[in-house]
Amino acid sequence: MNMKKLSPRVFVSEQITTTDIGIASAQGIKTIINNRPDNEAQGQPKTADLAAAAAKLGMAFIDLPVVAGKVTDEHIEQFENMYGELQAPVLMFCRTGTRSASLWALEEARTLDVDAVLAAAAEAGYNLSAMRSRLVSRSATAAPSARDPAQQDVSGDRHDVVIVGGGTAGLATASSMLKRKPDLDILVIEPRETHYYQPGWTLVGAGIFDRKQTSRTMASVMPKGVKWKHAAVAGFKPENNSVILEDGERIEYRVLVAAPGLKLDWDAVEGLGDTLGKSGVTSNYLFDMAPYTWDLVQELNEGRAVFTQPPMPIKCAGAPQKAMYLSCDHWLTKGKLKDITIDFRNAGGVLFGVADYVPALSKYVDKYGINLCLNENLVAVDGPARKAWFDRTDGEGNTSRIEVEFDMLHVCPLQTAPDFIRQSPLANDAGWVDVSAETLQHSKFGNIFGVGDVCSAPNAKTAAAVRKQAPVVAENAIKVLSGNAPHAVYDGYGSCPLTVERGKIVLAEFGYGGKHLPSFPQWLINSYEPSRLAWLLKEKMLPGIYWNLLLKGKEWLVDTELLPQVPVSREHKEAVDS
Ligand SMILES: Cc1cc2nc3c(=O)[nH]c(=O)nc-3n(C[C@H](O)[C@H](O)[C@H](O)COP(=O)(O)OP(=O)(O)OC[C@H]3O[C@@H](n4cnc5c(N)ncnc54)[C@H](O)[C@@H]3O)c2cc1C
Fold first, then answer.
1. Domain termination residue (choose one: 84, 116, 151)
2. What is the CA radius of gyration of the chain?
3. I need a surface site. Which of 218, 304, 320, 532 has the fewest CB within 10 A?
4. Whether residue 461 is found in the same domain as residue 544
5. Measured between alpha carbons, how far is 518 from 522 in angstroms, rounded to an integer?
6. Residue 524: which CATH number?
7. What is the dihedral sign for C-alpha 24, 25, 31, 37?
8. From ligand 1's centre to the CA of 438, what distance in Å?
9. CB 461 near ligand 1, within 6 Å
């Protein structure tokens, strides 16, 4: 927790945990105000748990949730009504602290000089200057109006390119753009302080990597020459070429790249959120949770280990199996495998989506004695009772619910587009950013592109896919900026290094329709057989390739296909270089 002072009475922070409440109490905080609705992100502490932790320490806890980008006049009125009565000092928090700082500023602007309020917020690390006109109108009249802040004319920046998300896809695309046009004005909007190398979490869950090897500060990986806006996007106004931030600020673009990844929907399974990280329930899909997988694997001597896989799409479709094979390999080495029953309960109807790789994987299913249970979807978990429930669908489409006892449960959660994308004009019917599978250009808005996990292209959602997508988006976005049609084409490449045992990988590499797209000659790495060299690639080389090449625009083993067409002028004049 990083408590920042707004005034002698009020402090602000990004999301806090129950442990932070103890720290806040030790600092003398008397009241905590939560401005973040529950279930906004995976792993977010529940309001009820935080309130209970505050109550134990005799602190007041007030829940005043504000939807990102929608600090309404009703919120301000509620805050205003309680403000004078609050037991100080007060700690306010939301995801980054921006919503809390905005609420505070809007209240204080009634009585304090707007410049003084803005300066205090800036001192605490919150640039609220885009709210100036709203603060001024608050100071002029205290009477609340019914205006929606997202509609207000808050002055905003304008950039050649705005990239939403500083994950794998956002940063790789920014770097690939700068490689082609070093003077391009690019703004990356990213709320997190930390960037994660998620492919490493499989190896954390197997005790091979320390989780520290999979994270770096966002500031250290942000490409040089890019401006970083430490904020979260709440909505889009493509008709005005602008995005709206959580505090209502509007930022304009000539070209927009949407790269906010996907949402891990832990709440889709009843009881899962309450038990994750306890009672034998784990997941390699979270930075904090992968070490717990390794703890459980080492502790388990006998009983039943269950590995789940939800309906597609998911990022790294092989990750649930990878966790299972590496766990089995450990139990085999320690002589425990014979005492452990292993289930792979998969909502899909096949072991792996690309048939060519199934024979090699099936050999490992047999070797480890895994019960392969297809068409079974996890719907509920009771951690303390060590029970899970699955909906099993038979060949006629009839569904029945089955109960399974477990000693260890590794869950891969259901995955969807983030809520602010699903509810936006950028989304297709399934919620993903609606792009051409070849050019990654939006199907309706010519100056918008989608890249990475969030886009609708039917490739395997992987960092490996980003390696090929980022140069395509960079090429095409720069074409659009200069008034030309996109001409670079993505072949659907994705890759899944299936860790079938410690020291061996089946390296699946394929494009649209499952087309085999190997990066190496078959005599070096045979894609359909377990390979030691592929393991060395994953363990020793890929992390360095990720941090030093992919994120830096050094396009390793990428030969982007450019169509030989004469580019034609596009009608989207906002994006065109003057
Ligand atoms: C366990 C596991 C194993 C994996 N193994 C492999 C593997 O072996 N090989 C492989 O190639 N891939 C693997 N992957 C998949 C790979 O990590 C992802 O496909 C890749 O990171 C996708 O990049 P992205 O930029 O689309 O999303 P992310 O890297 O998740 O980044 C999205 C970013 O957007 C930001 N964001 C979210 N909301 C907002 C908002 N409102 N405003 C602004 N920014 C926002 C987030 O904070 C985040 O930084 C694995 C993933 C997992 C979880």
1. 151
2. 25
3. 532
4. yes
5. 8
6. 3.50.50.60
7. positive
8. 21
9. yes
